[in-house]
Amino acid sequence: MTSLSMKQFKDSQDSKSQFLDCRPTSVFASSFIPNSINASLNGSFEYMANCVFQKTKPLVIICEDGKDGEAHLRLESEGFKDISTFNFEIWKKGGGIMATIARHSASEAQTYVDLMKDVSNAEDWEVLHVKGTSSVPLIDLINDFSLVSEGDVLYCGNGHKSMAAASFLQIKGVNVTDIIGGLSAMLVEAPDLEK
After folding, report:
1. pLDDT digit string (tens) for 25-69?
2. Which domains does the chain have, with CATH numbers?
3. Nearest to 18 by CA among 61, 47, 66
4. Which of 117, 98, 81 is nearest to 21 (CA)?
5. How far is Cα 16 from Cα 58, in angstroms, rounded to an integer?
6. Rounded-to-5 percentages of helix, strand, coil across the chain
7. For residue 180, what is the DSSP state?
8. In degrees rounded to 5, what are phi and psi of residue 117?
9. Which of 49, 78, 20 minimizes the C-alpha distance to 138?
10. End-to-end CA distance of the chain, in Å?
11. Angle between helical axes of 45-52 and 160-171 (0-180°, round to 10)
């Protein structure tokens, strides 16, 4: 599959295109193209894509070399039709502007309990969550981002949905952070946290 060129990608930024970055959350958070939203191939990829992106609008998948085919195929099977791919390395080598999202280690979680919101599915939240946190499922947050406030600390089961939410909110001008590895990491690294 052929990647868009730098010029084609920049042209798409001036159109009604949507930008999905399918790289791993840790890689994405440290360096990504502004106005792109993370939906990692390693997480609930199809679910996040369906929550965040409209199937009727052009979609550009930003990916690592060799991951374009898998991402394209998985989204095509979900009913996305107008899909292009762009290799992130082209942007990086071309000196493109980068954005970042700050994250917290699970071992620091106790410090942020009062600011935490769980963006897991409501069913998952019912099974297990950090005591004192509220449930704001990703789909609800996408439909009404006022459910989250500037400075909130997001988490989910493994950190995939929280990064999708954080990158979505950044586009809306709401800066939040998340917990690396989510609840899975907190169970190991913050065993004294009430769950």
Report:
1. 999 999 999 999 999 999 899 999 999 999 999 999 999 988 999
2. 6-93 (3.40.250.10), 103-189 (3.40.250.10)
3. 61
4. 98
5. 7
6. 40, 15, 40
7. T
8. -135, 135
9. 49
10. 45
11. 20
Number of neighbouring beta carbons within 10 Å of residue 194: 9
Q: What single-letter amino acid sits at 108?
A: E
Q: Which residue, 18, 60, 37, 62, is CA-closest to 138?
A: 37
Residue 166 and residue 132: Cα distance in Å, rounded?
Answer: 20
How distant, in Å, are the alpha carbons of 51, 84, 92, 100 from that of 63? Answer: 19, 11, 12, 16
**How confident is the model over 64-110, as pLDDT tens digits?**
988 999 999 999 999 999 999 999 999 999 999 999 999 999 999 99
Beta bridge partners of 38: 21
Q: Is 32 helix (H, G, I), strand (E, B) or coil?
A: strand
- Non-local (6+) Cβ contacts of 173 within 8 A are none
Q: 98: left (phi > 0), else alpha (psi -120 to 50), else beta?
A: beta
Question: Token pair of 97, please?
Answer: 């502007």
